[in-house]
Amino acid sequence: MATTSDVRGQDDLYQQAASEYGAALARLARGYEADPDKRRDLLQEIHLSLWRSLEGFNGSCSLRTWVYRVAHNAATSYVIRQRRSRPQTLLGLDEVEALAIEPDTDNKVALDQLTGLIQRLKPLDRQVILAWLDGMDAAEIGELTGLSSGNVATKVHRIKTILARDFQGGRNGRS
Amino acid sequence: MDDPRNLWQTQEVEEMRISVEELRTKAAKFNNLIRRRNIREYVAALVGIVWAGTYLWRTHHFVERIALVLMIAGVIYCMWHLKKWGSARSFPADLGRSDCIRFYQSELKRQRDLVRGIWKWYIGPLIPGMTLLCVYFIVVPPSGHLWVSVANVVFQATVFLTIGWLNMRAARRLDGRIKELDRELGHV
């Protein structure tokens, strides 16, 4: 049974996590759900999962890694549930490489395109791209996802290629 | 356009401000929801058992009685299995401890095992009672018309086979996704 100090520790940790990573969690939710109302529900579910999970936080990894793991795992469960009611084909990075996205100089349009692309990715590729976009390095992405450093490096290289091609206007001869 | 990382990190987002007290209330609501969902499952099974029990009480035919007892036992087994493996799930304890790939895999495996075992825990336990009842109704048609009993058997067999086939197809798809994750982990 949780003692009063455990509960206070859990509450304090949650408040620290929410204040430090609140914006990152909101961005992450955006990568998983396009509909604004459903996104709010997802974000609420992530916060609830985070608070509940922090009861078992034992410092085996950094608070940042813990927060991202909980958020991605809760969002992945959400995607699995949603796919039962809204079947949708999700793509791997290799399939995304074959897609044609018209680069746009307008940041808002480009951000919408980028978000749309993320939302179409398979969970693991989505986790890697979201973590990379949020500034994580290869070692942190490996710790978050469980992928080997070599596998992370390959995926990050692919992500950079896709983003450079489709979002920084480096693509020529588009059909 | 800006660098994608910068664009992503500087986007305007609506942060969620939620107090610990609100979270406690939501957690309690979530637990109630799970409890209510489990109660609904039991009530549905209970209705089936009461219906079969009433029929059992009224009928004087030995074969019908055996069939109904077998069906009640089948429903009880299904409920026990659902309670143990697949009923409305409470909060997963490994959300923060498991890395994403292993958490995703465990979620997929849990689903796959549930749908793959449908012959064992859902269709299978109901088959002995249903088959006995169907055979009995063909030998002694309750409506007096053999074709009504045969049509009933064909309909029920089609429903069971379709449920079984759909679940096996879902299990194969889930298996494919689990193997894909195994490849990512370098296990294959």
Rounded to the nearest angstrom, the radius of gyration of chain B is: 24 Å
What is the second-level CATH architecture of the largest domain in chain A?
Orthogonal Bundle
Distance between the amino and carboxyl termini of chain A: 63 Å
How many domain regions of chain A?
2
| Structure class of chain A | mainly alpha
What composes the largest sheet of chain A? none
Identify the CATH class of the largest domain in chain A: Mainly Alpha
- Enumerate the spans of chain B where pLDDT stays under 50 for 5 or more consecutive residues: none
Q: What does the average pLDDT of chain B come to?
A: 85
Dominant shape of chain B? elongated
List key phrases describing it.
heterodimer; A: 175 residues; mainly alpha; Rna Polymerase Sigma Factor, Chain: A; Arc Repressor Mutant, subunit A; 2 domains; 8 helices; disordered C terminus; B: 188 residues; 0% strand
What's the structural blueprint in terms of helices and strands?
The complex is a heterodimer of chains A (175) and B (188).
Chain A: H1 4-32, H2 36-53, H3 63-85, H4 93-97, H5 107-119, H6 123-133, H7 138-145, H8 149-167
Chain B: H1 4-9, H2 20-58, H3 62-86, H4 100-116, H5 118-139, H6 146-185
